Amino acid sequence: MTLAAADSLERIANVFVEDGLRLRHLDFSITDTSLKTHADKKYETQKDRFGDTPQLPDGRILLKPAGNPLGQAHAWDYNASRPGKYWVELVYSLAKGNSTAVPNISAYRIPTRLEATGAANRFRNITLGKVYFVQPGEQKVGLKFRGDTPRVRALILRPAPEGEPIGQALDRSVLLHARDATIHGTKLQYETKPHKNTVGYWVNVSDQVCWDFTVMSGGKFEIEIHQGCGKGHGGSRVALEVSGQQLEFTVKDTGHFQNFVPRNIGTVRLAKGKHRFWIKPVKKAQNAIMDVRRIRLIHTN
Q1: Backbone angles phi, psi at 86, to 5 degrees
Q2: Of 145, 1, 146, whose CA–CA distance to 74 is shortest?
Q3: Domain range enclosing 286
Q4: What is the rounded distance in angstroms from the CA atom of residue 54 to the CA atom of residue 259?
């Protein structure tokens, strides 16, 4: 599929704002010459844009209708670059009436009711649920409607947490385990096998991982990372970021990617509330960066 120029209105799949750590979708209208967002002006709007391939470097998958956007059924063949979990978001317009969206993605088929947006060119985003690609490779992505037929702007698969919400333990520590991470990338993945149970396949410097968690008792926390790295693959530089604080460290060769060694990287201060902890590679030394099984934030005062 040949796409329009990068600044073309045809490239826009969705419009949103970031409200703290929360992503909020906005209604937006598109005419032949302009885009209008329906939002509080205090927020800086951002856009999901179709790229030259469905999957963007940060892991988002943007699927555009190949034929008539007013079709009663849509289907895509997608070649997944990694296993993992994704939120499924539909961007649609429906001038009047009501409809029900029925996805068929990796055995997920739970219907979602769609309300009218008020105009054929006014689009709205709605979450249809969470899907799990068990393995990479060919995936069938289907979408049908019952009732009135909406206009489909895009179907977006956005990286989702692999596990459960993260809170603070009774000893005031916070456990960021690989099983609860959100993967932002195309190769990095949570490896589920018991002897692995890690974030691995870290071959792209652009691939990143984060955890969202809640602190009930703030203070100073030591960062302890359980990191593994195969023989001869050490030396990559990695940044840890949380609440405006950044620490860097050099990956240690541990003899095997699943030989996890606890390392104290430094300390951060966290207030009561919601936080997002990032691991962002800075420079790759060899073929792969590292594996990470868990991070512990240990309360020290």
Answers
A1: -140, 140
A2: 145
A3: 174-299
A4: 35
Find out whether 258 and 196 touch, Cβ atoms under 8 Å.
yes
**Does pTM surpass 0.85?**
yes
Q: Please state the domain count of the chain.
A: 2
Same domain, 154 and 212: no
Do 115 and 232 have their domain in common?
no
* Tens-place pLDDT, residues 157-182: 999 999 999 999 999 999 999 999 99
For residue 7, pLDDT over 80 is answered with no
Q: Is the residue at 92 inside a domain?
A: yes
- The CATH number for 256's domain is 2.60.120.260
Separation CA 152–CA 65 (nearest Å) = 7
- Per-position DSSP letters for the chain, written without gaps between them: -----TTSGGGEEEEEEEETTEEEE-EEEE-SS-EEEES-TTSPPEEEE--SSSB-TTS-EEE--SS-TT-SEEEEEEEESS-EEEEEEEEEE-SSSEEEEEEEETTB---EEEE--SSTTEEEEEEEEEEEESSSEEEEEEEEEEESPPEEEEEEEEE-BSS--B---TTS-EEEEGGG-EEESSS-EEE-STTT-EEE----TT-EEEEEEEESS-EEEEEEEEEEEBTT----EEEEEETTEEEEEEPPP-BEEEEEEEEEEEEEEE-SEEEEEEEEEEE--SS---EEEEEEEEE--
Mean pLDDT on 276-290: 97
Distance CA 132, CA 85 (A): 4
Assess if residue 164 is contained within a domain. Answer: no
